Amino acid sequence: MTIDKVDVEVRAVNWLPLPCDIVMEDSPSVEEDDLFPKGEVMSFHPKQGYGEIKNVRGELIGFRMEELEMIGPKGDAKYLSEGKRVGYDVGWTSHGMHITKIKVY
């Protein structure tokens, strides 16, 4: 079985500009150009008040909402959910390393 190479026509992206009077209130923009280590929220349980972030090395680091400081324009727990990219700061406790600050991008 052979597959013939098919020519594909390249087209410009279809888009329509938004009118100037429409304001997107989805979420404030946040720059990732800071010194925080970056990671991704792997699990977040808002009712229980804890979650885990996976860092760039693949390690999971836990956080508890009562020990956490949310910073930046998205400094509210409503912006925190699984799959979000975040910057974080860690602190050592008697139970190991825990996240003390989170900045949601």
Describe this structure in words.
By secondary structure, the protein is mostly beta strands. The protein has a domain at 38-104: Nucleic acid-binding proteins (OB fold (Dihydrolipoamide Acetyltransferase, E2P)), CATH 2.40.50.140. Helices cover 0% and strands 38% of the residues. It is built from no helices and 6 strands. It has strands at residues 38-45, 50-55, 60-64, 69-71, 85-93, 96-104. Strands 3-2-1-5-6-4 form a 6-stranded mixed sheet, with no helix packed on it. The radius of gyration is 20 Å and the shape is extended. The model has no long low-confidence stretch (mean pLDDT 84).
Rg, rounded, reads 20 Å
Head-to-tail CA distance between termini: 48 Å
Count of individual beta strands: 6
CATH class of the domain at 38-104: Mainly Beta
Query: What is the CATH topology classification name of the domain at 38-104?
Result: OB fold (Dihydrolipoamide Acetyltransferase, E2P)
Structural class: mainly beta
Average pLDDT, all residues: 84
Helix content class:
under 10%
Poorly predicted runs are none
Q: With helices defined by DSSP (H or I, 4 residues minimum), what is the helix count? A: 0
Which band does the percent of strand residues land in?
Answer: 35-45%
Spatial order of the strands forming the largest sheet: 3-2-1-5-6-4
Instruction: Give the SSE order as H and E letters.
Output: EEEEEE
The CATH superfamily of the domain at 38-104 appears as: Nucleic acid-binding proteins
The coarse overall form would be extended
Which sheet architecture does the biggest sheet show? 6 strands, mixed
User: What's the CATH architecture name of the domain at 38-104?
Assistant: Beta Barrel
